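Fill in residues.
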């Protein structure tokens, strides 16, 4: 269904991807891509310490929701990567999660997109889709994340990461999923309990 599925956030450097992922929480990738160029141009990992401050980041991203929190996370990440990681975004799950706001989902996104490691990031949407299709039968995103770790092979995970995002974003949406054109109706829990009925 989605042979060209890929990360839809614009970025050129690891730190740009990390910032874009932070900004994308509860915001569309399109909105993030609109505001990213100016922010990226103004602040990079090598920016002079004197030239980066919280209010400046707020000014660039204030058109997106939760911009105050997101600005703080970007600012604190910038400081921590500079002071503790020698200006390099960590390339492993454990160290990534020491950055402000970065949890297991974001760490997996960075590892899958940036370094092509075999990780499948489970957010609420992926949790929903995997449950609808009976891959898992779980109550929380965390439970789904743990099950997905063992359910799929490493060779499939990073590809699945992109495919599942496209699937929930453009087909199996939270409200009004496109069941009428879906090839998975015969194995779908949602279809059987909501549509067929
Ligand atoms: S049948 Fe509908 S709910 Fe089920 S996977 Fe397809 S689009 Fe999603």
């Amino acid at each position: 269904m989605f042979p060209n599925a890929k990360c839809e956030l614009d970025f050129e450097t690891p730190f740009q991807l990390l910032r874009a992922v932070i900004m994308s929480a509860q915001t569309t990738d399109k909105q993030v891509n609109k505001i990213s160029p100016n922010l990226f141009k103004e602040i990079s990992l090598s920016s002079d310490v004197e030239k980066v401050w919280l209010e400046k980041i707020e000014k660039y991203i204030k058109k997106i929701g939760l911009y105050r929190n997101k600005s703080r996370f970007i600012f604190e990440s910038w400081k921590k990567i500079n002071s503790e990681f020698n200006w390099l975004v960590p390339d492993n799950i454990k160290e990534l999660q020491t950055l402000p706001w970065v949890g297991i989902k974001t760490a997996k996104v960075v590892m899958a997109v940036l370094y092509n490691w075999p990780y499948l990031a489970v957010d609420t949407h992926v949790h929903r889709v995997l449950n609808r299709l009976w891959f898992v039968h779980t109550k929380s995103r965390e439970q789904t994340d743990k099950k997905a770790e063992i359910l799929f092979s490493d060779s499939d995970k990073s590809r699945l990461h992109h495919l599942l995002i496209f699937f929930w974003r453009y087909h199996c949406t939270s409200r009004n999923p496109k069941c009428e054109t879906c090839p998975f109706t015969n194995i779908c829990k949602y279809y059987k309990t909501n549509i067929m009925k």
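The chain has a mean pLDDT of 92.
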